[in-house]
């Protein structure tokens, strides 16, 4: 696979595009507005700058990476010559169903269509196409150029050949993979949601301060970030959305604590709004 179409130039899409380009792949980066594409390219430039500052990338390699990424507002142009399509639009099932209907119509019949969903049904997304055997979950982690794991999600109709192809291309770009069944939250989102929600309950019950809960988890469990600071980074609205989906699937053990609901109701969504469990202003 030499050419990859990445659909969506947001935080994840831009990171995925950068990762492929850094490993020598040509990328068509699609979004619906010039503003979104411009922000995506700026995000990539800043990320490459951090790699340069860390001595992990040369200026010349950074320039070559950017040259391999072609922004486009034309979905047909993005996919018509692609060897692989990776969708990274917002985590909304109806949006993804609509997109996959379009991708199915526009992309060559033999092309794999991958979704970067972190918890939605790959089987349902695949059912929107005429090629469900070629639809697969390819769940990346933020920041995509740094995080080593790709969680490959096998839908009900996903073929062995499709899974093997995604494993192969993941290896080509120096990623590690796990293969999981299409169950709500897969492995990583399900495990992380349970961990975060229980730590929020401890905070709500006054067991410890947010700072001490995070410090205990960082130093006692050797996590790089505490659960509450990570929740602020991810976005509390996103955590609530995941919690509600997991509650529908698995019951009350994933029900969102009141403290999470009230912070979201107040518009305190974490770093992106300047306040969540912590004040980031």
Break the fold down into its secondary structure elements and pairings.
Blueprint: E1 3-7, H1 11-22, E2 26-30, H2 34-53, H3 59-67, E3 69-72, H4 75-79, E4 84-87, H5 93-106, E5 112-115, H6 122-126, E6 135-139, E7 149-154, H7 160-172, E8 176-181, H8 188-204, H9 210-221, H10 227-234, H11 236-250, H12 258-265
Parallel strand pairs: 1-2, 1-4, 2-3, 4-5, 5-6, 7-8
Antiparallel strand pairs: 6-7
Structure description:
Strands 3-2-1-4-5-6-7-8 form an eight-stranded mixed beta sheet, sandwiched between helices. It has 281 residues and is an alpha/beta fold. The longest helix has 20 residues, at 34-53. It has twelve helices and eight strands. Helix 5 links the parallel strand 4 and strand 5 (112-115). The protein has helices spanning 11-22, 34-53, 59-67, 75-79, 93-106, 122-126, 160-172, 188-204, 210-221, 227-234, 236-250, 258-265, and strands spanning 3-7, 26-30, 69-72, 84-87, 112-115, 135-139, 149-154, 176-181. 49% of the residues lie in helices and 14% in strands. The model has no long low-confidence stretch (mean pLDDT 96). The radius of gyration is 19 Å and the shape is globular. The protein folds into two domains: 3-181, NAD(P)-binding Rossmann-like Domain (Rossmann fold); 191-272, N-(1-d-carboxylethyl)-l-norvaline Dehydrogenase, domain 2 (Orthogonal Bundle). Helix 1 (11-22) crosses helix 2.
Brief synopsis:
By secondary structure, this protein is an alpha/beta fold. 49% of the residues lie in helices and 14% in strands.
């Amino acid at each position: 696979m030499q050419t990859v179409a990445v659909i969506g130039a947001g935080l994840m899409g831009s990171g995925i595009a950068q990762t492929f380009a850094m490993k020598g792949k040509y990328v068509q980066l699609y979004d619906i507005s010039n503003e979104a594409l411009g922000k995506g390219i700026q995000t990539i430039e800043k990320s490459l700058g951090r790699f340069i500052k860390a001595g992990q990338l040369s200026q010349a390699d950074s320039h070559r990476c950017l040259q391999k990424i072609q922004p486009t507002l034309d979905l047909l142009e993005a996919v018509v010559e692609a060897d692989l399509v990776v969708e990274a639009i917002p985590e909304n099932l109806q949006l993804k169903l609509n997109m996959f209907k379009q991708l199915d119509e526009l992309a060559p019949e033999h092309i794999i269509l991958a979704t970067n969903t972190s918890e939605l049904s790959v089987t349902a997304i695949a059912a929107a196409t005429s090629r469900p055997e070629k639809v697969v979950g390819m769940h990346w982690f933020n920041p995509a150029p740094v995080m080593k794991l790709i969680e490959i999600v096998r839908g009900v109709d996903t073929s062995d050949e499709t899974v093997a192809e995604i494993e192969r291309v993941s290896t080509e770009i120096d990623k590690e993979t796990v293969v999981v069944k299409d169950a709500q939250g897969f492995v990583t989102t399900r495990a992380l949601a349970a961990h975060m929600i229980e730590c929020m309950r401890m905070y709500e019950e006054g067991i410890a301060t947010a700072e001490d809960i995070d410090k205990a988890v960082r130093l006692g469990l050797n996590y790089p970030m505490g659960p509450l600071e990570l929740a602020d980074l991810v976005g509390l609205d996103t955590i609530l959305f995941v919690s509600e989906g997991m509650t529908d699937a698995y019951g009350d053990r994933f029900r969102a604590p009141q403290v999470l609901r009230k912070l979201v109701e107040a518009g305190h969504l974490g770093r992106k709004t300047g306040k969540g469990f912590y004040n980031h202003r």
